[in-house]
Amino acid sequence: MIVEFGSEIDDALNNQVHVLAKKLEESQIRGVLETVPTFRSLLIYYEPGEIKFGQLQEKISAFGELTAAGSQKKKRILKIPCCYGARFGQDLGFMEKHTGLTRDEIIAIHSSVDYKIYMLGFLPGFVYLGGLDKRLEMPRMTTPRVKIQPGAVGIGGSQTGVYPLASPGGWRLMGGTPVDFYDPDRENPILCQAGEYIRFVPISIDDYYDIRREVVKGTYQVEAVEEGGEPCQ
């Protein structure tokens, strides 16, 4: 079953998607197996031997108006270290010409926003982030790169994101993170969830390799904070 809330990328619509997903999780409706949030819809996997389509539709309708008011908690923010430039930011020069901003200004703007994870897709752990400053909007490459390294941070159109795996891609690259957004050997292979936020924290190339060594050893812990709150697990 797909529940649609609109036809555009909009924060309010996306909030409704996550509110419905949360209500379904809390209700523990027999037969509902999994939910997958997108920008403006929620895909619901269910077992028809346990619950019929019409029955599930009735239960969802009984939730009433789906608004974030009164149900929205403090936002959980993952602080993701990012080495801008160096060998990771192949397109920073293009970005300077396209925007008229300096490299330092681009980095400062990009790292000043808490980006909402609207959805995950394309690759396991690939985050589609909302909130990019319009000054940094970038045209995608005419000819995509054949291979982008894991951890690459880029911009495509009005969105920014992180490539979790080596793959082709046409986004403009500005940096790289030593953190694994997808690790099949980790207890939770996907680092983050839709509805959470990401804050990029500029680091040096030396910091990058120091953190990377910790990640490989399994000793690095991504810092997570709640807006206005203390660090959380």
Descriptive report:
With 233 residues, the chain is of the alpha+beta class. Helices cover 24% and strands 29% of the residues. It is built from 5 helices and 14 strands. The strands form 3 sheets. Strands 4, 5, 6, 8, 9, 11, 12, 13 and 14 form a 9-stranded mixed sheet that branches. Strands 1-3-2 form a 3-stranded antiparallel sheet, with helices on one face. Strand 2 and strand 3 form a beta hairpin. The model has no long low-confidence stretch (mean pLDDT 91).
Which characteristics define this entry?
globular; 233 residues; 14 strands; alpha+beta; three-stranded antiparallel sheet; single chain; nine-stranded mixed sheet
SSE topology sketch:
Elements (H helix, E strand, L loop, with lengths): L1 E3 L6 H17 L4 E6 L3 E6 L6 H9 L14 E9 L7 H8 L3 H8 L3 E7 L6 E4 L14 E4 L3 E5 L2 E4 L4 E3 L2 E5 L20 E6 L2 H13 L5 E4 L4 E2 L1
Parallel strand pairs: 4-12
Antiparallel strand pairs: 1-3, 2-3, 4-11, 4-13, 5-6, 5-12, 7-10, 8-9, 8-11, 13-14
Beta strand count? 14
Pick out the low-confidence regions: none
Overall geometric form:
globular
Query: H/E order of the elements?
Result: EHEEHEHHEEEEEEEEHEE
Distance between the termini: 33 Å
Sheet with most strands = 9 strands, mixed
